[in-house]
Amino acid sequence: MVVCPYVLALQQTGDLSRVYPAFRPMTAGIGSSVSVTLNSIIIINITVCYFLEHNFEGSVLLSFAARYIQRGWIYFKHSLYYVSSTENTWKDSREDCLQRGADLVIINSREEQNFIRELKNRTWIGLTDTEKEQTWKWVDGTTPTISFWDTDEPNSYGGNDEDCGEIYFYERENSWNDAPCDTKKVWICEKNL
């Protein structure tokens, strides 16, 4: 069975916050000195079952995703996400994503917005109006079909050149903000599966 070694490997690392950021461990005592983390097995089994049941080449996709997850990527709804641990400009952040075979995150749904905003505060996303002021586009050239701008955003505050999009407040669903592209922030890459 291909699934078992993968599940056991993740279980042994105990680092499930990379796989599922909202993970809250729940333990149950067995005897007097042994405890088992229950949620980890359930969460991973759901992820593994999704790959195997919904993809023709499930084991190949599982192997592909497992390699990325082991390198710190997070799986959510048909995509893998990488959250940087350092800060960089929007342009350099995008270049880092491209070198990883991904791009800055494109948010296509409320569910994805809520997932992304809970990963990290003040992060670059793949939104920019550098080509034409106030015409916001994703890094793939598409116009947002749904938006989550904060109140009075985008605004090029104080006449500043704010041409790059960020998630500003993770506490609020409407958390997009325009910011100067040369400021340094952490960033989120997305790789579609």
Automatic annotation (TrEMBL):
A molecular-function term among this protein's GO annotations: carbohydrate binding
Domain (C-type lectin) ranges: 76-190
SUPFAM superfamilies named in the record: C-type lectin-like
Signal peptide (UniProt feature, chain positions): none
Name under which the protein is recorded: C-type lectin domain-containing protein
Organism field: Maylandia zebra (zebra mbuna)
Keyword Nucleotide-binding: no
Keywords: Disulfide bond, Lectin
Origin: domain of life: Eukaryota
Keyword Disulfide bond recorded: yes
